[in-house]
Amino acid sequence: MEKIKLSEGAGGEMMQKMISEIILSNLENKNVNGGIGLDELDDGATIPLGKSEIVVTTDSHTIDPIFFPGGDIGKLAVSGTVNDLAVMGARPLAIASALVISEGFPKKDLKRIIKSMNKTCKEVGISIITGDTKVIEKNKFDDIIITTTGIGIAKNGEIKPDSGLEVGDKIILSGTVGDHGMAIMAHREGFGFETNLKSDVAPVWDVVEAALNVGGVKAMKDPTRGGLANALNEMASKSGVGMLIYENKIPIKEEVVAASEMLGIDPYEVANEGKVIIGVESDLAEDVLEAVKKTKHGKDAEIIGEVTDDKHVILKTSVGGKRILETPVADPVPRVC
Asked: What is the pTM of this model?
């Protein structure tokens, strides 16, 4: 009897295959009013209603550990949901939150998590308006799982699907890659080396709003599970295009490079929780970049490449060579979100 593997929930090819073969193939009603639905596997779904489109997204958070350098599961839950709404081009409005808590979980930790969720909501200006709480017998699962569903709104025709890229568009990355996954792994596994790495977990609505206000945005994605490599390949594949990415333009911290080399992990395949990839019309790319760099979470943004008709995501390496930046089989760091 076939059983689900941990790697089938870690982004990349294995998860996409499992979703397609088991989930999508067994569901029939997958969109509403002709909007973006489950088949598109975008960051959210859309429900067209008159002159507006409601955007809905949902995510479960199982990170281990629940408190980590730079954040906690509460901040992650709100940020991840806000970011999925934002990259669809929707203004975040509200969140529904469901908690599944292990018996014996410390109440002080729960209070700390809820306060963190509240603080992150206040940063974006959204509300948690409904929820559910369950307690499960001790030892049935780890500490706490949080599922958040986000609701956002956009004007009709202003949704930014993954599939919106065209040849000639520029690719903007809002900041350094690999921070979250490498910080979690170093903290969790304790590999015996000192690091000041912190997770980048943050809501990126400020970055997205700045880009949208300039105009010319074609598609957006937050590079979570599977990292930059997975997100770029997904956008390219859905748009029917390729990309040329310049490695020397990708923002990355020296600590991430050092830790990646030591652990034998590709930093481009590691999850991020506070970054966004933006595909922009070439003529407006510099203006969008300038606007993004003025935001709290976009100071390290760079134009990292352009869209081509190659059908592959090609990385021009720092030493001048070229290689295909493949879709990872799975995120090399499990349970990072």
From this structure: 0.96
